[in-house]
Amino acid sequence: MARPDRRINLAVARAIPPFLLCVFIYASYAVTKPLCIDYLIHPLSKYDHGRRTGAGVAILVIYYILLLIVLTTYLRLLHTVTWNAGLLPRKATPPADDAHEPPHSSGRHRRRRRRHRRHRSAEKTNTLDRDVESEADSTVDGDTTIPWDTNGLESFYTKDVFVCQPDGRPLYCSTCCHYKPDRTHHCREVDQCVRKMDHFCPWVGGVVSETSFKFFIQFVFYTMLYCIFCLIVCALFTAEIERETGGANPHLAVGIGLSGLFGLFTFGMTLSSLQLAMLNLTTIENINRRSAVWTLAIRVPNHLLSRLNPDSRWAPTFNTITYPLPPMPLTPEAQRNYQPPAGEQHIFAILQTLPGENPFDLGSPFRNLQQVLGYKVIDWFVPLKQSPCAVRTDSDSFFEFGPVVSRLKREAGLEKPALEEARQ
Ligand SMILES: [Zn+2]
Questions:
Q1: What is the 83 CA–ligand 1 centroid distance (Å)?
Q2: How far is the CA of 73 from the centre of ligand 1 (A)?
């Protein structure tokens, strides 16, 4: 059964779009009739001044242009959130764990682990925060309570770098029963995993993610401009009417309140969204960005494979994982002797970032911003093209990695030092 806050979120999400529509209709009425027509273009008899048609028409034109832009970005955002939210399909059934128990597991252990697994599954369904912590920290228990599921791993081990658990397997969603591509989170409101999920947004009634974050930024930015314009116009003419008649127009007074409130809110949202985009973080990743430690599986290049021999003087200090995985967990001894089919080995080093490092930070705020808003200035302002980060052209990783990963590779000896490369 859904927790009350989830139900409230969903109910609010359904109520807000019609509420916003009512606010726009009312604001349009207040600016058009009481202000532009009754006060400026055809002043009512109670106002002691002549016609100011030019001012009235100019305000109407600017107002409706801004309104059109706001509605266009809102509809683009709603459309993306509804039809292309970046949801990952759920797997129908969990893997048959019992068949994959390690041979040394006793019946009692199996029962205890099943109970633990059920508990984890319920926990993940009901609390996004739990999911958030376990992922951003990458301190997901690499314990055996996560089912030994070998399905769908090809899309990970054919890449060069991916986010993993401490045991080298990708992060796993025990509710959807599948491995999660980098930066994917389980959203409890829609009860599905979402690629690069940012947050569940009641203003658009859905999940803001990699496909819609750009349109979300554009929507809050243009709404902020619209609110600032309404606030300035309503405040100026309310002061003027007060000087002329000694009273105030109630519609303009409500306009000041609404545009001030929404203006402040959208100003805050615009600033925080742009800041996140410049850091290349999502709202979820930002929760513990100062302490987050990411565990990454980084491919060991072929020319270094011979150095992985524990007897070699180059023996690495990091753990490794070899894909494809065996169909079931092996005892430590069997694991050492396990040889995947010839020619199909993909060996990855398991490395960790320092606390607070973001491997997706491309090294400059501008480059990070381009990943969300686009490479051309026109893309930054027009809500048409998808974010570059949502268009998968790079087969080496799910998302582009930055200098942190280059440093990890260098320190682990997986990359040629710059000096050596320059000499060649
Ligand atoms: Zn999930």
A1: 19
A2: 29
Residues 397, 24: Cα–Cα separation, whole Å: 43
The alpha carbon of 78 and the centre of ligand 1 are apart by a number of angstroms equal to 22
Asked if 369 and 278 count as a contact pair (C-beta separation under 8 A), the reply is: yes
Tell me the three state secondary structure of residue 20. helix
Tell me the CA–centroid distance for residue 14 and ligand 1, in Å. Answer: 23
What's the CA-to-centroid distance between 65 and ligand 1, angstroms?
Answer: 41
Per-residue pLDDT of 187-211, as tens digits, reads 988 999 999 999 998 888 889 999 9
Q: What is the pTM of this model?
A: 0.83
Q: How confident is the model over 264-313, as pLDDT tens digits?
A: 999 999 999 999 999 999 999 999 999 999 999 999 988 777 777 666 66
Other beta carbons less than 10 A from residue 400's beta carbon = 18
Residue 23 has pLDDT above 90, yes or no: yes
Quote the pLDDT of residue 131: 42
pLDDT attached to residue 46: 84
From start to end of 126-264, where are the E strands?
161-163, 172-173, 178-179, 185-187, 192-194, 199-201, 206-208
Question: Ligand 1 centroid vs 119 CA: distance in angstroms?
Answer: 15
Distance 180 CA to ligand 1 centre (A): 8
Per-residue buried b or exposed e for 156-178, using 16+ beta carbons within 10 Å of the residue's own CB: bbebbbbbbbebbbbbbbbbbbb
**CA 366 to ligand 1 centroid distance, Å:** 32
Indicate the range of 136-150, 171-185, 234-248 predicted with least confidence. Answer: 136-150
CA of 56 to the centre of ligand 1 (A): 53
Among 421, 417, 295, residue whose Cα is nearest residue 349: 295
Q: What are the structural domain ranges in the chain?
A: 10-88+182-292+357-391, 147-180+295-352
**273 C-alpha to ligand 1 centroid (Å):** 24
